[in-house]
Every structure is written in C-alpha cells, then in structure tokens.
Amino acid sequence: MVIVIVGGQWGDEGKGKLVDFLAQQADMVIRAQGGNNAGHTVVTEHGEFKFQLIPSGILHSHVTCVIGNGVVADPRVLIREIEQLRERGVEPQNLIISERAHLVMSYHPLLDKLEEESRGDDRLGTTWRGIGPAYADKIRRIGFRIGDLQKQVFMRKKLDFVVGKVKNPTLQRLYTEEAFDNDHMVEEYLGYAQVLDPYIRDTFPIIHDALDRGANILLEGAQSTMLDLDFGSYPYVTSSNCTAGGACTGSGIPPTRINKTVVVCKGYTTRVGYGPFPTELLNHVGDAIRERGNEFGTVTGRPRRVGWFDGAVARYAVRVNGATSVALTKLDVLDEMPDVQICVGYDFRGEFHDHPMANISHLKHCEPRYERMPGWEAPIGDCRSWEDLPANCRAYVERVEELCRAPIEMIGVGPRRDQFVVRGRRPYFN
Ligand code: IMP
C-alpha cells in the first residue's frame, strides 16, 4: 500500500510527526521533492530531532528511507544530518539516495540570496537555501545529479562549463561577486562523494521491487499545496511540485499505485515568507497562537505569520491532491481560545469565491467570510479518542470536515509522537 502525505496549507503543518507516527507501520519512507528548505521536527522518548533532508522515518530502524529523484540535496547539509544522527546513536544504515536527485551546489544559496536582495520590495522571502536556483538549473539541464559525484572526469568537465561559462560570468558581471574556483570545487565535491558513496543507488528497482512485494510505502511531502509551483500562490511559492503529482514524479511511483492521500492541515493557518494570506491575524490573537504553537521557522527561526483556519484553502488542497482523508494537527494550540473562527470563502468585487483565486492580487485584496464558533477552553493533550474531545472541539472539527469535504481521520493534540486522536480505521495501512 502506498500513502502520500502532503501539506494542505503553506507548510509547517506537522507532516513530519504524522510521517513518524505512520512510519511505525511502514517499510519505506520516501522524500520526493524539496530540499533543506524543509524542516521536519519529530519528538520521541530520546528527545527532539529536526530533519531537513533525511526522511522522518529514519528513527525506525526497520524503515528504508529514500531521498528520491525529485529532491535537491545540499551535500554539506546531508552529511551534517548523517553525522548528527550518528552522534545521537542512530546509524542511518537504511538511508538510500537516488542517483537522479540533484545537488544544491555551493553557488546556489549565494545566487538565491543575491537574487532575493535584488528584488527589493518584491522579494519572495525564500529560505536562501539555493532551492530555486538548483531547480532552475535542473530544468536548464545544467544541474549536477548526486550520481555525478561518482564520476570524477565528468564532474570536472561539467564544472568547467557550468562554473566557467555560466555561474562565474553571472556572479562577476551581474553581482560583482568573486568567481568560484573549479579546481577547488572538484576537490570539495570529491570529498562529499567519499562520504555519500555508500548511500547512493539507482532507487528505481528498489522502490518498484518493494511495490511488487506489496510493501507499505509512505511518501513524505515537503512544503505544501499553497507553496506548489503550479497551484500555489505564485510567485510566492517554492520551486517544486509539492502536491500529490510531485510525489509520483519525484519518486517514480506511478499515480495508479497510490492508495491513499492524506492532506495535513493545522487547526489554524501559518505561512512563512511573503505573499497573500487572506486569514492572517495581525493582532494579539495571532500573537497568542504564535506563542502557544511555537510558530517560529525550523529552518530560519523566522516568526511565522498566523491566521484562522481557511476552509477555502483546505478544500482546494483536498481537490488538487485527491485527498482520501485529512489530518488536522496542533488543535491543542486553540485550547484557550474563548471562540474560534473559520473562513468559508472569500468575497471579492461582489462575488463569492470558495477556492483561492489564481490571481494573487485578488487573493491579496479579497475579504474572507468567517463563521464564529465557541471555543472549548479545556486542554485536549491527553485525549486519545473522539469521545474524549470536548463537545465544542468536536463541533469545530466537524465543521472543518464539512468544508474540506474529506473525512478527518487524525487529530493532533500535542507535540509528542503519541498525541493523536485516530478516528479512521486502525492500522492505517490496510
Ligand atoms: P524557497 O523554497 O527557499 O525557495 O522559498 C520559497 C517560499 O517557500 C518562501 O516563502 C519560504 O518561506 C517557503 N518555504 C519553503 N520551504 C518551506 C517549508 O518547509 N515550510 C514553510 N515554508 C516554506
């Protein structure tokens, strides 16, 4: 069985925790897109772990963790994550990296930063991790793949062209930056090759053999539907397809083999970076949710923008991804609210819209239409069944479910691995 986990908002919905929870029943966890712009936090009895590239399933020794072909991986970050795991007693022996995955090269973060700075007021608020420039090079066919690390002569020749003819002229003429030294880069990348070599594989037969055996496979999405290159709030998006389609192209698993798609949404909404956010709360309510939900970026530490639950965004995510269910996370963050609001759609120039408009200027200037509901004003962290949840909390979840038009099968009630209310069938893989 194959389950896809994708974000239904603007990222940071708690996908890592859900993947970690479901990984208990999985044989394989695959990251299919994004890079170290993602930050997934998992809290276990051994403390807190933060992952940027390594799939969150790595804490389960029986799970094969795959960095798929759709990922762009910065080798420096990947090596640091491997080392950090080792320092904490976790040997990532089940980690494999697709030789088709692309490398974030050392010039990519620099170009990301320079490009952002030169946009001035129109900057996107990227993470400066070089993600956009790395994907752009993939599409321009001047990217380096992880497998290239194993080909010394090829690497040197290609660096001569890419660095000598494309990157250095851009850096020097457009930005008056210093040139990269090809010889130094060859040495540097050969060093990375030595460390990463044991993990590099053609993941295609490994994944397809697992499919043929009927293995339980989880596809761990990074970023989210509203950050998707095609369906998000372009240009305030990331540079990959973070929707369910991207999970297929980024892993080589065909759409016909996907059994379930879980869209993960927080019980409220957050976003990092710039761009339209109709339900944003620029007041003390937003501040309270930010503090209680610890809404500060895992990667950059930036305070996240916070707002009410947006039913139009969630329903859009359910439709774009073909969600079979929704997981509603961090609901406990709303425990102390005397009342809660849900956006059901937007009013713009006399018309009602029940989904986010493609035109981001309309999305920026629309008026969200809200429904107000009484809060539950009780801690839900110890609830483990639907019946345990306070009546007002259940009413809120039911209204969200109606708006999403997909069953809410999991509810996150706290940061720990076990803090879930599961409404759907158990075990989840069946
Ligand atoms: P980039 O992916 O670094 O190019 O950033 C593009 C946009 O996506 C920015 O608004 C980032 O804040 C946002 N973004 C990228 N990755 C994540 C994530 O994992 N969570 C939330 N926002 C993200």
Question: What does this 3D model show about the protein?
Answer:
The chain has helices spanning 15-23, 75-87, 107-119, 131-140, 152-174, 182-196, 203-212, 244-249, 284-292, 311-321, 360-365, 391-404, and strands at 2-7, 28-31, 40-44, 47-51, 64-67, 72-73, 95-98, 102-103, 200-201, 217-220, 260-266, 269-271, 305-307, 309-310, 325-329, 339-348, 351-353, 367-374, 408-412, 420-422. With 430 residues, the chain is α/β, with parallel strands linked by helices. It has two domains: 2-92 and 202-422, Adenylosuccinate Synthetase, Chain A, domain 3; 102-198, Adenylosuccinate Synthetase, subunit A, domain 2, CATH 1.10.300. The chain has a ten-stranded mixed sheet, sandwiched between helices. Helix 3 packs across helix 4 (131-140) and helix 5 crosses helix 6. The site of inosinic acid (IMP) has 20 residues, from helix 4.
Summarize the structure.
The chain is α/β, with parallel strands linked by helices and 430 residues long. Helices cover 32% and strands 20% of the residues. The chain folds into 2 domains: 2-92 and 202-422, Adenylosuccinate Synthetase, subunit A, domain 3 (Adenylosuccinate Synthetase, Chain A, domain 3, Alpha-Beta Complex), CATH 3.90.170.10; 102-198, Orthogonal Bundle (Adenylosuccinate Synthetase, subunit A, domain 2), CATH 1.10.300.10.
